[in-house]
Write a structure and sequence with these properties.
Elements (H helix, E strand, L loop, with lengths): L14 H25 L10 H18 L7 H17 L3 H18 L3 H17 L3 H13 L5 H12 L9
């Protein structure tokens, strides 16, 4: 069994475990939101000081760590954590790490049978990572798949399309 195929944490069996799992959930949400607070429209490593780079990565990895241990978590949380790690590394220009996490996201989505925007974002993250690596033909294929992914909720679709339009795309055009 690979790391990506690990089952969700077992439900807490006592009050102490439940409290810890709920604390992990709160910390996962906080770390996720804090990552986005620091990203806040920045699209390249040049937009960050060296200390901010470390802080950004710490926040993104903390979110993934806590989601893996959180109360009432599942494959969607794991996929979204991998996506955030990919996006963070793309913005910093770390193409290989971004692709690693994008592929992890895609495996989780496929294994769990996730669809809608989780499927779309898995293609989007792989497209960005490939573009970051200069593999524009492969990136274009993934971006096309991302754009063709149906997102049922109109509000989610609007957010998704705005994300697809946002930089960085490293010279990839749709």
């Amino acid at each position: 069994m690979t790391e990506d195929e690990q089952p969700a944490p077992a439900p807490p069996t006592d009050e102490e475990e439940l409290i810890a799992a709920k604390a992990h959930r709160a910390m996962a949400i906080d770390a996720n939101n804090a990552t986005w607070d620091l990203l806040d429209g920045r699209t390249s490593a040049a937009d960050f000081t060296p200390d901010e780079v470390d802080e950004l990565l710490g926040r993104a990895y903390a979110a993934a760590y806590h989601w893996a241990r959180a109360f009432e978590t599942g494959p969607a949380n794991a996929a979204r954590a991998a996506w955030l790690l990919s996006r963070t590394n793309v913005v910093l220009g770390n193409g290989e790490l971004a692709l690693h996490h994008a592929d992890q996201c895609g495996r989780i989505v496929a294994t769990a049978g996730l669809s809608d925007f989780d499927l779309g974002y898995s293609h989007e993250s792989r497209a960005r990572a490939l573009a970051c690596l200069g593999r524009l033909d492969e990136a274009a294929t993934e971006l096309e798949l991302a754009g063709a992914t149906p997102v049922a909720d109109p509000e989610d679709r609007e957010i998704y399309e705005a994300d697809l339009a946002a930089a960085p795309w490293f010279g990839l055009t749709s």
